[in-house]
Amino acid sequence: MMFKVFLSVLLALSAAERLNQSIYRSFSNIKACFRRLNGTNEFGCTSDFSGNVGVLQYIDSQDVSSIQNKDHAPYVVLLSPEVFSGSMLEKLKDSGNVNGVILPGIKEGKWKNKIPSAQSDDVPCPNQGSSIYPDSADQCGSTSSPWNPAGENILWRNWDFPIFLINDGNTTQDLFDCYEEFNSGTEPNWPLCSVELKSPMYAAKDSETCFRRSNIVVTLTPQDYCEPLSDYNLYYFQSPRNRTKADGSKIAQKDKSVVVIMARLDALNIFDKEENGFDSPSTGIVTLIATAEAIKKSLVNSYKPGHENILFLLVHGESLDYLGSNRLVYDMMKDDFPAKLAKDIEEDASTTSRILSNGTQPLFNLDHIKYIIELGQLANTKSSTLYYHAHNLIPDLENIIASLRRSSVDVKASSRSVLPPSSAQSFLKEKSDIPVMVLTNFDEQFANLYYHSIYDTALVHNYNYSKGEAQPIVSHLTGVATALASALADHVITTGTPPQADRKSVNAMLECYTQTKNCSLYRLVGTPNGFPYIGNLDEGPHPQYISVHSSYHTEMTKQILQYFTGDLDQDRNCTDPEERIVLKDHCQEVCLEKNREQQIYSYQFMVGSQDCFNSTGAICGNCYKTSVGKKMARSPAFEDDIWKTYDWASGQYPTWTESYWKSISGRMFLQPSPSSQHSTFAIGIIVSLLSFPITYWLQKKSQIIFENAGTDISSTTSANPAPVAL
């Protein structure tokens, strides 16, 4: 009996699932706009918790009259990428008839390679609220010609509906076909093709509110509403630093003795997992690492008078009020860079995590910076000319500029007297006399018309790894890295050979950062035990967004920097070609063990060479000794000893958080007319109301109704012949 009941329930559920599938067509490969918050506001998108439903309407021009018909409202708009813009979204929102927007991807299908002529999700004056300049005109560069002319302020608006990006060409074609069949024409008739978009966000109001709510424990299973944005900044000292001399005496870093070369790590737009930027930040990252590699290979012998080191910095979260550089400056001012030396010295000698006193680096702070060179957007899509934007220009920087001008790179002075949006401004806020030079591909306005946009891609910038090392962008970035390394060799370091950046390295990095995470360089710098061969390797490069945890983008950039600047440091048992295959796990353990009790070097075990691959994958690895490290890129505002008393509206620290969400989904279906839905609902109510008296009447009259049936059964039973014994 129980089996029959179970089988009946199973069949009913199966029938319900088949019915659901026959009514609804779910989407795949969804990238949703989500909610961010700062100390005073909320930005981005959300849906109702039950989802937003609307009749599908296709728009491919600036004419939005098709959504004015309230008889079919609300609508979900399928928006052609060629007309996607902030002004278009504003029109849709102002209509009051739109419940959601779907943007088709441009990688395949009907809208392949169809992009707007210019599009930026950011504002015309990026990071204006964190500028060192008090005057709004200086913050923007110019009121009439702001730094980011394509800025449309999509990011920093609170939209009332979900916005989905769907890259799957089959799904977007199905949506368009559904619209064409049922919804096109001037007077379409019901049923109409409709869509449900679901992306409910938990956080609301501002970071202060949601962060406090997340830290209130009132149940056994506390609810999180938002999380602070955080990742890691990366740093690399060209020469290792030990605060202990051979005779045991201690040394400190001299003031104005270290040259800082800096670039940003992050990209930004409104869609989750789509935050990749070719010009910003990939060209800056690639050029910085190529410069570091060129200097490393040129065999630095010593430093010119007045110089002691070169510090390469890759800072994260710069799109959001310079979050990473703000934290870096905070750490330097708190005697916590590259590590909290006082804590290491006081560490109990009995603990296994202690740092030996002769294994520490001297502290580094703002006074030790001689000058900063920041690498911004550098693509040569429009022109190969570069511009330097200077602040507190000194003879040492003038010498660097003179060397750059003598190189093959065309370098000119910016016609503006103020710095563009740049991470160096975080340093200048705390120490205004630091000399700074920002090197970019623009003079008064961004040359990149897709800054902070999903369209800042390799395709737009005419790059493809398969075209090889001779393509213009590879040659250009290689030339910039060579020119900068040579300028440093002229005035900062003494080298054994003239620095020369490697075209092969530049091309390999561009492939990983701008085309696909399934690239040869990532395999080379990964660990033999699998990383980074996990996850879906088919969906483009790793996102470059600063999220709520460390990202693959940051970790793989750290691996690349260690690979190009590190020295092989193999255990003697791990040098034999056959032994290191058998002893792979032992070799890795020995390598990583060297990180204990010291913080001068970082030891990393990675594949490192092509002879460690066979047809099945990586079979061995190599130990690299580097001076690369990482520091937390998370706003000081969220530190335990600060956030409870912090003035969230002060702007002293960035206060960015990201909302939690449970699930994101979408589906389309045919929706009957409202009158039909109302009739169905009314019939359901009537049937429900009638079922009560009918059921009551049937129960009261059951003996009369079923009496004859009962009699027939009993009489049939009694007519059976009695058993006969054999």
Spatial strand order of the main sheet: 1-27-9-5-6-7-8-2
Number of domains: 2
Strand content: 15-25%
Rg: 32 Å
Low-confidence stretches: 1-20, 713-719
**CATH fold-level label of the largest domain:** Aminopeptidase
CATH architecture assignment of the largest domain: 3-Layer(aba) Sandwich
C-alpha geometry:
globular
Number of helices: 19
- Main β-sheet description: 8 strands, mixed
The total of beta strands comes to 27
Average predicted local confidence, pLDDT = 90
**What would you call the quaternary organization?**
single chain
- Return the CATH class of the largest domain: Alpha Beta
The share of residues in helices is 25-40%
Structural class: alpha/beta
Alpha-carbon distance between the two ends: 35 Å
In short:
The protein is α/β, with parallel strands linked by helices. Helices cover 31% and strands 18% of the residues. It has 19 helices and 27 strands.
Description:
The chain is of the alpha/beta class and 726 residues long. The protein has 2 domains: 19-201 and 663-678; 230-567 and 626-634, Aminopeptidase (3-Layer(aba) Sandwich), CATH 3.40.630. It has an 8-stranded mixed sheet, with helices on both faces. Helix 2 (86-95) links the parallel strand 6 (75-79) and strand 7. The chain is globular, with a radius of gyration of 32 Å.
